[in-house]
From TrEMBL:
Source organism phylogeny: Eukaryota, Sar, Stramenopiles, Ochrophyta, Dictyochophyceae
Organism: Octactis speculum
Protein name: Uncharacterized protein
Keywords noted in UniProt: Coiled coil
Record has Coiled coil as a keyword: yes
Stretches of the chain forming a coiled coil according to its record: 11-38, 73-165, 200-251
Length: 261
């Protein structure tokens, strides 16, 4: 973190810049989450049009007997239930109220990681099960896989809604305590106020680079997703980007302490 305990001037400018940058990153993250939702909807349509996906992502060829395929899907259902329990626990924690900004950021980071984990679970494990070559029990396997995919989609939606709720609550906590005294950084950057503002300008530049990335992805999504694989690749990139923005905001921007300027 950047500690500005020795600064006597430039505090107002630094605080204003930091708050504006935080708000801009929040808005960019919202765009990313909306894009994820749009890709979700389009990939669902692609799945409906091509329900028997012949995925080559897995290292193993799951050309199993129908009984084994159904058993494997049941096993994945169990893994899904474990993730539901995790989300339930986080949801209770959020509902009981977030006391500090640090609490909010910790929970938000956990939710971002969970969203990525669900994405990976769905598109590496569930879609890695090939049902198109089954001679028997195909209908049962397809039904189970589609239901599990839908359940994971719904769970991801819950996670994204929780992220939005935590965003709103952390914003309120920031307003109540706008001058955060962060101790996350390992070094004590006792800089002059000019240096602090320059550092914020540098972070603004990094933010602009991420905006360009989102713009590019947005154009790609608007032009239409041709294949399910396209949708999954873009979705994975968006999930990673959401996590990157989260880290950028709460390690870099909030690492700048202006309370003692």
């Amino acid at each position: 973190g950047i500690v500005t305990s020795t600064l006597q001037t430039g505090k107002e400018d630094a605080v204003t810049k930091r708050k504006r940058l935080n708000r801009e990153v929040d808005n960019l993250r919202d765009r990313v989450l909306l894009l994820i939702e749009k890709v979700n909807n389009e990939s669902e349509a692609l799945t409906e049009a091509m329900p028997l996906i012949n995925s080559t992502r897995g290292k193993e060829d799951h050309s199993l007997q129908s009984v084994s395929v159904v058993q494997h899907l049941d096993q994945l259902q169990g893994e899904y239930e474990e993730e539901v329990a995790v989300v339930d626990e986080i949801e209770r924690s959020v509902k009981s109220g977030l006391v500090t900004y640090e609490d909010a950021m910790r929970i938000k980071h956990n939710l971002q990681q969970l969203a990525g984990k669900l994405d990976k679970f769905q598109h590496e494990k569930i879609d890695g099960i090939v049902t198109s070559t089954l001679q028997t029990g195909k209908e049962d396997a397809v039904t189970k896989r589609k239901r599990l995919n839908r359940e994971v989609d719904n769970l991801r939606d819950r996670v994204l809604l929780l992220i939005e709720k935590v965003n709103n609550e952390s914003e309120a906590l920031t307003e109540a305590m706008p001058l955060i005294n962060s101790t996350r950084g390992k070094e004590d950057h006792s800089l002059q106020s000019v240096s602090v503002v320059q550092h914020l300008d540098q972070l603004q530049g990094e933010y602009e680079e991420e905006v360009a990335v989102v713009d590019e992805i947005e154009r790609s999504v608007k032009s239409g997703l041709v294949t399910y694989e396209d949708a999954m690749r873009i979705k994975h990139n968006l999930q990673q980007l959401a996590g990157k923005l989260d880290k950028f905001q709460h390690e870099k921007i909030d690492g700048i302490v202006t309370s003692t300027l």
